[in-house]
UniProtKB/TrEMBL annotation:
InterPro entries reported for this sequence: MTH938-like_sf, NDUFAF3/AAMDC
TM regions (residue ranges): none
Natural source organism: Devosia salina
Gene3D superfamilies to which the protein is assigned, alphabetical: MTH938-like (3.40.1230.10)
Protein name: Mth938-like domain-containing protein
Pfam families cross-referenced by the UniProt entry: DUF498
Length: 129
């Protein structure tokens, strides 16, 4: 089953693999970027850091009261994110950690296994690192 066709997976789960332009989780594959939220996994229309805006993160902001940490996977490279994004989450007492998608996936899995209040916004990459 491809989650892009189904729209969303109804629970937050760990990510088994990433690369080839998508992610594998819950014995499914998803092509494209992904939001991992407390209420489920959903496709995300962000394909590059330039597309990362407060509007593109609205679904995460709407759940900020249920989060301690937001991991942002920036793709293959690390770059600065808009200070307004950091401030919006800081105002809601959510820590942002922005790094390469691979590092964000690994940290997300660890925090999720520790039952932490975590979300991830992951830009898909072609090559896993």
């Amino acid at each position: 089953m491809n989650t892009a066709q189904a729209g969303r997976f109804p629970q937050q789960v760990g990510i088994d693999a990433y690369g080839n332009g998508g992610f594998r989780f819950a014995e499914m594959s998803h092509k494209g970027s992904l939001l991992c939220l407390p209420d489920g996994m959903v496709g995300w229309e962000v394909g590059a850091v330039a597309d990362l805006t407060l509007d593109s993160l609205k679904a995460v902001l709407d759940l900020a009261d249920r989060l301690d940490v937001l991991l942002i996977g920036l793709g293959s490279d690390i770059s600065a994110i808009d200070p307004a994004i950091r401030q919006a989450f800081r105002d809601r007492r959510v820590i942002i950690e922005a790094t390469q998608t691979g590092g964000a996936v690994r940290t997300y899995n660890v925090l999720l296994a520790e039952e932490r209040a975590v979300a991830a916004a992951l830009i898909a990459v072609e090559n896993a690192r």
